[in-house]
Amino acid sequence: MTTGTQEHTPEPTLVVLDMAGTTVADGGLVEHAFARAAGRLGIEPGSPEHTEQLAHVRATMGESKITVFRALFGDEQKAQTANKAFEEAYGTLVDGGRIAPVPGARETIETLQEAGRTVVLTTGFARVTQDAILDALGWRDLVGLTLCPADVGGRGRPYPDLVLGALLRTGAADDVRRVAVAGDTSYDMRSGRSAGAGLVAGVLTGAHDAGTLRAAGATHILDSVAELPYVLGLMGGASQGADR
After folding, report:
1. Residues 17 and 35 in one domain
2. What pLDDT, in 10s, does the model give residues 108-160?
3. Is residue 77 a contact partner of residue 113, using CB atoms and an 8 Å limit?
């Protein structure tokens, strides 16, 4: 674990956590689901077009998926078709038992809540996919609020809307600096910084590496979300993360 040098910020009372790659390990299902969505539009796996589009999907992990497909296809109907196919494929893979909690994620969420912090889970997926993930993990009642882009007007990351939506809906902080954000992508970092969150932690269990997360504005780099309670001073001792 490494922590950034920054001026003192108020203690976080609201914690906004990403799902896939941060609290949920999906084993690369995004890429599998994308392949199915691309196939729906006649894009053959292994073709130059498929390779180029897959690279874009990897680079934009964390962004709202419909936004990604709009950028890829430049046509709203094609984007909607691809997004629907993607969500259906991802949901089928989730139902097939292809996901699991990141080790220590559930315990982290419970520790935060027991310490009086409000926790909100967010995603760039559609609500139907988010709900499928929550059901597969038995997390429906784990937190009081979960948000997807459609819940905050349709804009996902890197916009601040998911973070600010969590703040407005819960009323759990009286200052944006009392919000902590954790995610595995540069888009999570940019969203947190744009919202004015006092702590923006990049975790190394998902899409992007430490350098990419730092460049996007991470104030802390964690081996996993399981280190977050240590960073917030809710558990004694030091975390086991290696300095990076």
Report:
1. no
2. 999 999 999 999 999 988 888 899 899 989 999 999 999 999 999 888 889 99
3. no
Residue 161 token pair: 């809307």
pLDDT at residue 236, as a whole number? 60
Q: How far apart are CA 100 and CA 28, in angstroms?
A: 12
List the structure tokens of 50. 């498929």
User: Which residues lie closer than 8 Å to 219 by C-beta, 6 or more apart?
Assistant: 3, 4, 6, 198, 199, 200, 201
Residues 111 and 197 in one domain: yes
Count Cα atoms within 13 angstroms, Cβ side, for 87: 20
The tens digit of pLDDT for each residue in 202-220 reads 999 988 999 999 999 999 9
Tokens read off for 215: 């460049």
Which residue range is the domain that position 110 belongs to?
Answer: 2-26+100-231
Q: Are the CB atoms for 168 and 147 separated by under 8 Å?
A: no
